[in-house]
Amino acid sequence: MMDIETIDPEELRDAAARMLGDMVERRAPYDPGKSADRAGLYGAMVEQGWLLLTVPAEMDGLGQSFVALAPIYEELGKAISPVVLAPSLAALELLAFNPGDALTELAAGIAGGEARVAVADQGSVSVAGGTLSGALTGVLADESATHLLLLGADGQAWIADLSAASVIAQDSWDRSRILHDIVLDGVAAQAALAAPDQAATGRVRAHCDLAIAWDNAGGHARILDETLDYLRTRKQFDRAIGSFQALKHRAADHKVDLEVARGAARNATRAFAAGAADAVTVAAQARLVTETAYRAMAEDAVQLHGGIGFTWEHDCHLFLKRAILNELLYGRAGERRDRIAPAVLAKMAQGRA
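Above: the chain sequence. Below: its structure as tokens.
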């Protein structure tokens, strides 16, 4: 085995925070006179080596675990980044560890920034004779996505070239992200796995769940900090409103919720990085915890900012929109609860035995 030096995640966090602070203007997607520089930001991420982090060393990657990606995803959430990394990096969980020249070439393309992947569940798409037919709605992907990774419920997966599909961008209340409808009409596809493998497809789903969990944690932390700053400076009756006991208690509750959410995300990240048997379950649990806490904080931030928080000119609504959309990506919260409930109940029963 090759010795691989572990990169300090906090150094990655500092570098990501500086770069995103310089390059991301979070209101740009909402300003008719501006546009988010997604291409430039993505190019900078490639130059920083973010897409190489979890690529195995034998494929000229950096050989790191998801622990290295977690702070990057958290900083992306703080910045409300308009660039989506998670689908492509989640696809590497499957592509980088399966034989086949075509898949290895695609994995290298993702790592080098030439290829970008959208990930979706099979849903109503039919697979016959090596082709895909059907329609997908609300697929998270940047406009330059080149491939689709379709995950079957039975542990199978397929890769299709999006140049042969009809990809239509859809409006969303969170303009920092782009959702697409994808129409597949006999589009050629390659099996991404030699045989159905629930563990392999599960890791792709878990990566997406963890990426959103950390995005939630980052957004929660940023809007909480900005709300606390407002409470310290906004005065009423010659007193900072943050000194009022009712508001202090509300802020303290959100801080506690944030720390609980971060703890769940950290625990799930360690389990995923270690390849634990329950990694898929705890990743989904962490996402559920963080999205509940983030939405509650974002909703309350609007109220805690008073009248200005309800206006288009204030940034509160940017975080609220991100929190709500995060709940809907890759299936609704209720579907995730149904999916992991048997494993959670079984573990509870085992603990009582």
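The chain has a mean pLDDT of 91.
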